[in-house]
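Re: [help] complex structure
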Amino acid sequence: MSDQLIIVGFHRSGTSATAQLLHRAGLFLGYELLEALPSNPYGHFEDREVVDLHHQIFMDNDMTWLVGRPFLPVLKEARWQRMRQIVERRNVEHGLWGFKDPRSCLFIMLWKYLLPDARILLVYRHFSESTYSLSQRHSANLFSGEGNAYIHKRFWEEPDLALRMWLVHNNALLAFARAYPEDTLAVSLNMIRDGFPVVWAINRRWGLGLKDVPVGETYDPRITARRSRRQPVSDRRLIPKVDATWRALQELGEKTEMMLWEKEAAVVGE
Amino acid sequence: MEGASTSVAGGRPVFYAGRFVDRLQSIGLSRACTLLGDWDVLPAQLTVATQEATSLIVLDLFSFPFEALSGVQRDIPLILLLPSGLDEEFLTTVFGEAVFARLDFFDRIATPDRALWKSLRRRYWWAEQQRIELESCDPDEAAKAIGSLLEAESCRPLPHPDFDKATHRVQKAALAPQFAAARGAEQISFDVLEVGVGTGRWASSFDLARTAFFGLDSSEDMVASARANFPEGRFDRLQPGLLVPYDDESFDLVFCVTLMHHNPTPAKKTLLSEMWRVARPGGRLLFLEDFVFGKRSENSTVYPMSVLEFVGLLLEATNGQVSLEHVESLRYPHDDVTRGGIIAVSKLGVPQRW
Amino acid sequence: MSENDFYTPTDLDMLRMENELLTFEVRFLRSRLGWVGRGTGSSPSLNRLAQLEEAENDLVLLLRRMASSPLGPFLRLKGEFRALEERYLSPRAQEASARDRLTYLEQAENDLVLLLRRIGRGPLGRVFRLKRGFRNLEERYL
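Output below.
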């Protein structure tokens, strides 16, 4: 029987750094991992087969990955088959495997259907930081002429796009957490920065046998700037929704932190 | 909906007497009625005669050109007088496909023959309320009886403006293929639940001999009417808190028609999550709702929602455990503003192909 | 929209709702008909896009190298080389690339392959192959 741990989180939330960490700790993340790009020097660690499949599903639904509205996809039989192929190969060849792709926030229930025992490591980050980072990457690319100009321009043409995307992706993750609380572990990028022992927590929770790698080894604080900033918003009706989602994420993160406090309390008690 | 069935006080019934027109001319129907003979129903004349008709009563089934009814004429509720002395076999052979099979909830059958009604009813799954009981099938008597009935009905308050044959036909045209798709090719038994079933008008879209049809409504009166209309179905009240009184994963198809927009958001969420709960994995949830709202009359209670808002609620209530099967927008006759839509999703489960 | 309160939709609300409904329906129909990626900027596979952009980069670098080399003036006598310069190095190239990015990139990839083949076959082939960079390009695209 194979175990699966899927790393999910909105774009620019720290999933790449987390993936790198878990990769070092022994989590198989895919046969062909995508390369580093200037915006993420330590590499994306995204499984090409999984990313391609997600893109195909977007295309089937006449969408891009810029999903800022609730997404209810059509799933063609061919995509189900491809998902099953991906799953079967990894189940056979690896006792523990997973993948990381921010787009998988929107498809996590599909994967869960094929992998009933799969767990997720939910990585979250404050909306102002994520959206800033996302917009920053795309403006840089737009001006340097790199990448898909259509995609870059969308962030300028559609007000609140990045914020809506943050909302939709994180709401999908919260839905998973509500449906499968035992299979969800949430950490924020701040927690990781502050040295939270992610691998220890995963092992503690689910006994997956990952190698405990000190966080400092893979995570370079220079790369991810911490900026607390105000979030620009055009449609003020988003504010209560974003607030509610942020608070729900924090609650999940607190549950994870409690594991550490319990451990420390136990140590003190001894 | 704006501008639906412009009813004149007393209504505007059109009586088609066919070959009996001479007899009927002497019986003195009310002035609002129009009387047509078999020479009066050439297509152009029929169009003129049935303009603004509120019902079309066919007293001479054999001579009426049903196939000539087209367009808006098909939206006029029909009342058909069954000729005397003919059995079910004969009637269905002659009228089955062209006439009976196309009748729906807003049409009626007038006959004194109870047994005949029963067997026809079960063949076409008509509602009991679609029967007009008569003392005799003599055209004169029948016309008088029907005339009085219609006049009595016109004194009652108008039903909900959306509740008319025109709207029903648009909805039925869109829903019927979805019902068929939900059933699939091979299923022997088919368990269906309608939430907000009202008097049961959608039950007749199913073959009740092969379908276990369940309906829920929050109104005791509605449930009672539905039970009377379709004894073959099972109708219950929605429990307090809008809970569905059935076990998880009990139905192959769970649907509702213009239910959601009468409920505020928290109620919508409850209904959606209950509907999802009782659907089987791989089963379907089907929604027909209004998604574009214009100005409404003061006494209508409506909580407008756009299609994306609805999709958002659906994803929230089901935790995203659904995939999209069908989307279709509906345009209603006589209404340029309001638009409905159909959304069908399957509950994530064993992905059977329909 | 307020959750529990009644309100009277304005014309703008109605337009927005209708827009949403029809867009949703069209998207669904497109997916059913298999009409994907037409004029909506649907992104091809990330990997493929990255590949195409690399090819474009490589082509531009190669053309610049060729143009600024001692062979440059000689190459510019060739109509085809001038056409490539015009297409990828001139200011107009920016415009063309913005208009239909995917087509532009695919053409760039094509042109790069053709160019490499041409150079490789011609008398200058051996000269170019002395450069490691050129050999790498050949490996990658041919």
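The two ends of chain A are 36 Å apart (CA to CA).
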